[in-house]
Amino acid sequence: MTGGLSVRDLSFDYGPKRALDAVSLDVAPGRFCALLGPNGAGKSTLVSLLTRLLVAPKGDIHIAGHDLRRAPRKALAALGVVFQQPTLDLNLSVRQNLSYFAALHGLPRSEVPGRIDAALDRLDMAERADEKARALNGGHRRRMELARALLHDPKVLLLDEPTVGLDAAARAAITAHVHDLADQGLCVLWTTHLTDEVRDSDALLVLHQGQILHAGTTGDVRGDMPLSDWFLAQTGAPA
Amino acid sequence: MSGFWGVTRAIVGREFLRFIHQRERFIAALVRPLVWLLIFAAGFRAALGLSIIPPYQTYITYETYIVPGLCAMVLLFNGMQSSLSLVYDREMGSMRLLLTSPFPRWWLLFCRLFGSTAISILQVYTFLGIAALFGITLPTLGYVAVLPGLILGGLMLGALGLVLSSFISQLENFAGVMNFVIFPMFFLSSALYPLWKMAESSPLLRDICALNPFTHVVELIRFLLYLQINLHALAWVVLSTILLTLLAVWGYDPARGLMKRKG
Questions:
Q1: What is the DSSP letter of A39?
Q2: For residue range A193-205, what is the model confidence (pLDDT) as tens digits?
Q3: Min distance B109 CA to chain A CA atoms (Å)
Q4: A92: Cβ–Cβ under 8 A, 6 or more apart, which residues?
Q5: pLDDT in tens, A37-58
Q6: pLDDT of B195 higher than 90
Q7: Nearest residue of chain B to residue A108 (CA atoms)
Q8: A86 in contact with B at a CB cutoff of 8 Å?
Q9: Is A45 within 8 Å of B98 when comparing Cβ atoms?
Q10: Residue A16 gets which letter from DSSP?
Q11: Is the CB of B25 inside 8 Å of chain A's CB atoms?
């Protein structure tokens, strides 16, 4: 697979404890893939490996065709990330936060203001550009982080439980927006333990105790059961 | 290459912005050495007789003696505080943001180190300025000559902070850093008393002081302030900087580093 995200046989241990066990997955461009797993399933470990905060001794990760082990710079340049923890500098304005990120990604200086305007515009945040991040509410902060993750035109977008701490309206808005991005051709991996964020047409991966239990299209996988009940039956954890 | 320059400017610039937003930190960083200089040294000057040792050519007051040590203390505290903010940063996620940049990790860490060193140096010069207002002055050219020593010392202590931050997992542990790193490093050095004085009490302690890289930062600064180069101290500081920087890069290596424990 060239454009999307591909993981082969990825394992990772914390000392004697196995966190991920031979995980393989593929997400095609234009696909929204939900990675569903209860707490402690290994989602955070997988995200750390995909973002190269950790490196696994075994297994391969390809991002937009670039091998994360052999060509980390190209692979990371093609990846946009929204972390579970807030990563904004609250004392800086929205624009300063985005400029900082643009520089970290080596975007040409002349392009940065235009890209920031476009990214904020896409998320209806244009009028907030000069506000301090501290002044934004939780939903707007998340939207800003999403705008930031798209600043360098990534091919693959990774979101790690992006709706944690948001109210229902903000959750729905951000979930819908990212689905739109996938429809426009982006490859999206969305980790969550909340089944109501997953649509029937989405690709679904169920991660449990470090292994992929199920992979397929959500509607097919869950059959006639509501996803939350099906998920509970599979993992023994309330969704 | 323009990307490398851009990322440097951004990281250093962010350090400055953070610094500007933390005015208490700046004031605390100034008050600390001034308390030592204006209170401790005043009370202590009678207790400690100093003979003429290089680089000094005349008798000096105790206040004059401890100025280089206090410059190094500013670098030390700032290096450690920067390590504290890295622990904090990491918990806040912005270290993640930094480390997922496509630029090489050692370069990102170096930029960060350079940014915090630049801020330390700003604090040192402010301290020297206030000391001068109180009549504790140094050779005029010494203020310029000391700059390379401050950069090198700042990098060394900043690298030490980075190394510590890769092994410390919780914010509260800064108290431990104070007890087990800052105080021993500061007191087991030539910052407050010349090593020959220490030798009068205990040759063993003198030997420990002589091995302490912080002593050599102090001496490097002391000699440069008087327009001399202490090659022995320079060699120690350069060596320590290289070793600590390598250790920091190792500590942050994704294949074995700190994130492993933190998940």
A1: T
A2: 889 899 999 999 9
A3: 12
A4: A100, A132, A133, B14, B17
A5: 988 889 989 999 999 988 888 8
A6: no
A7: B3
A8: yes
A9: no
A10: T
A11: no
ipTM of the complex: 0.82
Range of the domain at B185: 2-257
B260/A contact by beta carbon, under 8 A:
yes
Average pLDDT, chain A: 91
B236 falls within a domain: yes
In a domain, B58, yes or no: yes
The answer to the question of residue B262 being in a domain is: no
Separation in Å, CA of A138 to nearest CA in chain B:
15
Domain range summary for chain A, segments of one domain joined by +: 1-78+154-239, 89-152
**Beta strands in A77-130, from DSSP E residues, in sequence order:** 79-82
As for how many domains chain B has, the answer is 1
Contact B94 A76 (CB under 8 A): no
Does domain A1-78+154-239 fall under CATH 2.60.40.10? My reply is: no
Question: What tens digit of pLDDT does each residue of B72-109 get?
Answer: 999 999 888 877 777 766 556 777 888 889 999 889 98
Cα separation, B14 vs B69, whole angstroms: 29
Spatial neighbors of A208 by CB under 8 A, at least 6 apart, are: A37, A38, A41, A234, A235
